[in-house]
Amino acid sequence: MREQTPDGSAGDADYGTIGTGYSRYRRPDPRIAAAVTAALGPVGTVLNVGAGAGSYEPVGPRVTAVEPSSTMRAARPPGLSPAIDAVAEHLPFEDDTFDAAMTTFSLHQWRDPTAGLAQLRRVTRGPVVVLTCDPSRVRDFWLHAYAPQVLDTEAERYPSLETIADGLGGEVTVEPVPIPAGCTDGFNEAYFGRPERLLDPGARLACSSWSFLDPGLAARAVDHLRRDLASGRWDRHHGHLREQPAFRGSLVLVRALP
């Protein structure tokens, strides 16, 4: 079982440390947000679990946010409702309270994803929407050649798509989400055509998987990337990505109907 951090973060990453600059690097991308909103559909009430600073919360429906990290709750902008201090595995709501539910880039942080998904289904009358990464595709990204431990960690933390489907039950669909060039949400694959961004310590810190890497290994990985960029080696192998309008990586949108 994952231990809760001093910040109250429910998973194995301490958002009291990595969350301090999170909002500068992890700004919701409007194109990804449109996909999440479309998957939720025309609903009146939405539960957002692992809500963080409110990324991808739709405009229009009444949103109830749940977030265990005090740092992330404090980072929610004034226009959003305050988040409830709770965890996915123990949602303090009656059955069928919400029209829809969502969780984005959060499921891999839950101590018991199966229990949390069952709770989401319990409190939701309609669609449950999960923005996550397919662990079977995480290692396909070019970063694996530079920081294999980072992507190995990501692949091990993300629940499989089969686990998500089984946990939610009902009618489940999985749609790949193209990652647009210039994506404003700075997860690792968002920099598919902007490798220089990963030389920035703040950008790396905003991707929780980097926080598990030994500092010496992280320094060597970054130095390897820096040298390949300076020599032109990265561009010889991956330079076409700089002009590519979108990248199909591991990002997926899971939608489950009861």
Automatic annotation (TrEMBL):
SUPFAM superfamilies: S-adenosyl-L-methionine-dependent methyltransferases. Residues 48-125 form the Methyltransferase type domain. The keyword Transferase applies. One of its GO terms (molecular function) is methyltransferase activity. Gene3D superfamilies: Vaccinia Virus protein VP39. Keywords: Methyltransferase, Transferase. This is Methyltransferase domain-containing protein.
